[in-house]
Amino acid sequence: MRKVLLIFGQLTDGDVEWLASSGERVHVDKGSTLIPLASRIDTIYFVLDGKLAVKAANGTLVAHLESGEIIGEMSLVDPAPTAVSVEVESDTTVLKIANDKVQAKLASDSAFASRFYRALCVFLADRLRHNTLRMGYGGAFDQHAKDELNDDLLDNVHLAGARFDRMLKRMAG
């Protein structure tokens, strides 16, 4: 599933418009490194197009990321150095938003902050659940539960998809 659906499902149309207008569309060439291992990043990225590889310190592939994925979200709440690198496997386009811009919006708009932090919590909880199941914890419900969305999230998936599609069209123009 595109992780942007978890984020955009919690935000309003206006919130997504603010993200799109506050960011910069950036092309990243195949073979480059978007985020180096053990770096401190000050940017959140929304993958608009392309393919990225998340790699552990030993070079092991952790995940592939494509359109609709989000990178750098943890840096908004924890500025610790990265535990992985993100390498560009095919030419990629991202929406790049500086953390200081997001932090200023969070400080000045409490309603946006509430929705945004809830969206981050939903996103990070999904990632933790997925990783926990991938590591073999969770017992008998593993296979059935790992791809299911709860009812609240499911209700917002169509809105989130429409919001992301509008963002893609806006960024293409």
TrEMBL record:
InterPro entries with a match to the protein in the record: cNMP-bd_dom, cNMP-bd_dom_sf, Env_Response_Regulators, RmlC-like_jellyroll
User: What's the short name of a Pfam family annotated to this entry?
Assistant: cNMP_binding
Q: Which ranges carry the Cyclic nucleotide-binding domain? A: 7-103
Give the UniProt entry's GO cellular component terms. Answer: cytosol
Give the SUPFAM superfamilies listed for this entry.
cAMP-binding domain-like
State the Gene Ontology terms under molecular function.
Answer: DNA-binding transcription factor activity
Its domain of life?
A: Bacteria
> What PANTHER family does this protein's entry cite?
CRP FAMILY TRANSCRIPTIONAL REGULATORY PROTEIN (PTHR24567), HTH-TYPE TRANSCRIPTIONAL REGULATOR ARCR (PTHR24567:SF74)
Q: What is this protein called?
A: Cyclic nucleotide-binding domain-containing protein
